[in-house]
Amino acid sequence: MKLEINETDCWEFLKNDGKPVVVYGMGNAAERIIKILNENGIEVADIFASDEFVRGHSFLGYRVLKYSEVCEKHKDFNIVLAFATRLEDVLERIKRIDSEHGVIAPDIPVAGGGLFTRAYFEENREKFELVFDRLADDESRRVYQNVLNFKISGKVKYLYSSTEGSKDSIYRDILQLSDNESIVDAGAYDGDTIREFTRFCGNSYKHIFALEPDAKNFAKLTRNTEGMQGVSLYNLGAWNKRDTLMFSKKAGRNSRLSGEGVPVEVCDIDSLIDEEITLIKMDIEGAEMKALEGCEKTIKKYSPKLYICAYHRNEDMFALPLMIWEYNPNYKIYFRHSPYIPAWESNFYCTI
To answer: How far apart are the C-alpha atoms of 215 and 233, rounded to whole Å?
Structure first.
């Protein structure tokens, strides 16, 4: 199987297709995407929102319409999706709309700079191809190729054809979670993944070490794990050394390390935990590379299973697996995408 990337940049497509461009969604993401559209010479014809959010108000000088109103106003048009979702009913709505008018969901990195363009792919083609060729199975290669094509084109069809229905199959067939796991959850948020792990394992585990730097999230994590035995909580961020960094406080799980914000303590897992670990999960908004550096000794000594998010930075799709193989070339690395638009919840799952 050869890596085939056939798509052109979504920005180039939208500029040259000739149809009116209509933005679906409001908020910070919409502001950022509209700014990029304008920088690329793409005029926004209208903005619409889901019916339940339309109240006759305006956004960035546009009167916010309903989808039905856009359909009445324009014979045909391209839709630019300007929000992220994992909600089943919203995903179904987007799928239906895409069947009527093309939906483009631009891939904007959560952390770091630059856009994931065809030029970016070509600049790093050898690294992408190296990862693609070494992935553990054909399904990983198929999904990896689809996600790359999505990141360039923004065409949501690639994500709908790449979705893993349930994490349970990953936990069972790839990670093969047992009832005796020692788990590090870096970026534990409010304990959502801990709930997934413990439910799957019948509430049996050896120990859970949970790191969460955001104070509000940590308070929720503390409440949600109250009464659980064998759980150690750390109000820390995962990094490559002990340090104090600035932390940008955003809504919920989107809080992340930044150049400004509030000071937070960070720590490498190697010095924080001095015992055998069987699974490390990382969902840390772009700090995965630094945190992996801080796990080098643990990975080399214990070869834990790894569950690493691959969508925060453009380079994550090749840099993370290449670092893992540098630490231990025997890792089998799988790639899967769980229901989400854009390509969030695209993850590497690694086993020996």
So the answer is: 12
Q: How many residues does the chain have?
A: 352
The pLDDT of residue 56:
87
Q: Range with the lowest mean pLDDT among 95-104, 144-153, 256-265?
A: 256-265
Backbone angles phi, psi at 63, to 5 degrees: -75, 125
- The H-or-E segment that residue 10 falls in is helix 10-16
> How do residues 9-30 score in pLDDT, each as one tens digit?
999 999 999 999 999 999 999 9
Task: Yes or no: say if 280 and 186 are a contact pair by the CB < 8 Å rule.
Answer: yes
* Dist CA 32 CA 317 (whole Å): 23
Give pTM, 2 decimals: 0.93
The two structure tokens encoding residue 239? 């990094």
Report the alpha-carbon distance of residue 7 to residue 253 in Å, rounded: 31
With a CB cutoff of 8 Å and minimum separation 6, the contacts of 46 are 20, 22, 23, 62, 65, 70, 73, 74
